[in-house]
Write a structure and sequence with these properties.
The protein has helices at residues 45-58, 77-92, 110-118, 131-134, 147-159, 178-187, 202-209, 232-249, 257-266, 313-317, 320-331, 335-338, 343-346, 369-391, 399-404, 408-412, and strands at 9-12, 63-68, 96-103, 122-126, 164-170, 192-197, 255-256, 283-286, 291-293, 304-307, 356-357, 363-365. It is an alpha/beta fold. Strands 2-3-4-5-6-7 form a 6-stranded parallel beta sheet. Helix 2 links the parallel strand 2 and strand 3 (96-103). Bound molecules: iron/sulfur cluster (2 copies). Residues 274-275, 280, 283, 295, 297, 329, 350-352 line the site of one iron/sulfur cluster.
């Protein structure tokens, strides 16, 4: 019998866009412009309890995932999260609650770690790689480096045996440091990594400051992008370089989420991450004041769906507005993507990045397309082998033996056709 699915996830930002750091490439701290100057960004008791109660009540699956993000949620202190956990217990009934905390790690201490371990939190830690790479953009408000503090946070989490998923942003510069970054994570015993391409446009930031809608399409790849935006091909090469190392040495031991998401596509499974799903609409976000938006990357006035204090998750998720938002990803796909051999895995990636024109002049091509095309084509033979292994009830990690053994010829000579 198929297990019931939750209708959508509503990620919470209990301290809004406020953060103790000032990372240059951050797209979210700008959102303070959406709120009044006198705004207290601390989520009120009323919003917290209403959110927890309604979110659990709306959940259809036996497990209810809560994701706490920011800004920097640890600025609220452990007390806020103790209260959140107590409220979850009050309303959980027979449902299992799973909490994830996304943090920059700089405020973590023993007290935090006791709490996180005791309550079985999963932690997403922002860490961009070795010191020089991390400190290139991840700075304090005074411009001070943050690497040492983040590493202290990582060590504490590891000491307490708390599951950590590192979120590593890939910038224009770091894209050329793939092996150094990968080796750094391996040396530091990181077991789960997710690489996130930084793609930002100047108009996004200006428009938010003016309280206007997000940026308008541009006709040239480099028009209006920020200086830290990763170059498309460089991003593809970055993934390929790390993939080649991973597929030979680390499958099953180090989980690079980008490769696991790709494997889902080769297995014909539904994508578990929105950027590679065929439509959007299932990853909503709630600001500290209870306002719910279509997605973390569309926190703009025109994408408001309502407020948790007066509406319900089901009503907002099933609204016509959110339905249209979700379908826009699929419907806005240019013909160039529809006929692309990698479409089944890429789906045109995130609409936020679709600001290029296709070679024949159609709007809506993803900025990272050149990189993705190269990456998906490169991993195809290996993905096919892993799929065959799984279909034969064997571990996909056996791909490492296949590459080393006589079958290497077959892997390397696979037709590039999908
Ligand atoms: S717009 Fe991008 S981030 Fe938002 S739900 Fe769609 S794919 Fe995900
Ligand atoms: S690789 Fe490029 S053409 Fe293919 S689906 Fe992705 S964005 Fe579209």
């Amino acid at each position: 019998m198929e297990q019931a699915r939750n209708i959508a996830h509503i990620l919470a930002k209990p301290i809004g866009p406020q953060c103790n750091l000032n990372c240059e490439y951050c797209f979210y701290t700008e959102k303070t412009a959406l709120f009044s100057q006198s705004q207290n960004f601390h989520m009120s008791d009323e919003v917290l309890e209403t959110y927890i109660q309604k979110y659990i009540a709306a959940a259809k699956a036996p497990e209810v995932p809560f994701v706490w993000q920011g800004g920097e949620p640890t600025l609220l202190g452990v007390a806020f999260f103790r209260q959140a956990v107590a409220l979850q217990k009050k309303y959980a009934g027979d449902k299992k609650i799973v909490n994830s905390l996304q943090t920059n790690g700089t405020l973590l201490d023993e007290d935090w770690c006791y709490f996180l371990k005791k309550n079985e939190f999963l932690v997403g830690l922002s860490l961009d790689g070795p010191e020089a790479i991390h400190d290139r953009y991840r700075l304090s408000p005074t411009g001070a480096p943050t690497f040492t503090k983040v590493m202290q946070g990582l060590r504490l989490l590891q000491k307490h045996d708390i599951p950590v998923n590192v979120l590593c942003c890939v910038t224009k510069e770091s894209a050329y440091q793939a092996l150094a970054i990968y080796q750094f994570f391996k040396n530091n015993d990181v077991k789960f990594i997710q690489f996130i391409p930084i793609v930002e446009r100047q108009p996004d930031i200006k428009a938010v400051k003016l309280g206007l809608r997000h940026g308008t399409p541009v006709s040239h790849p480099t028009s209006g992008i920020t200086q830290w935006t990763v170059e498309p091909e460089a991003y593809g090469n970055f993934l390929i370089t790390i993939f080649d190392e991973w597929v030979r040495n680390d499958v099953g031991n180090l989980h690079v989420m980008n490769f696991e998401w790709a494997l889902e596509a080769w297995l014909g499974l539904a994508a578990t991450v929105c950027v590679f799903a065929n439509q959007c609409g299932e990853a909503l976000v709630m600001e500290h004041d209870g306002t719910v938006y279509s997605c973390d990357h569309y926190v703009y006035p025109e994408y408001q769906l309502g407020n948790i204090l007066i509406s319900t998750p089901a009503k907002m998720v099933q609204s016509e507005q959110q339905h249209r938002f979700g379908l826009a990803k699929k419907e806005g796909l240019p013909s160039y993507c529809r006929t692309c051999e990698a479409e089944f895995a890429c789906h045109g990636e995130c609409p936020k990045h679709r600001f290029l024109q296709t070679p024949d002049g159609e709007a809506g091509l993803n900025y990272l397309c050149a990189g993705y095309k190269k990456y998906f084509r490169h991993i195809h033979p290996y993905m096919k082998v892993m799929r065959q292994l799984i279909e034969n009830n064997l571990s996909p990690a056996k791909v490492m033996d296949v590459i080393k053994g006589p079958l290497i010829v077959k892997v390397n000579n696979q037709s590039p056709e999908y």
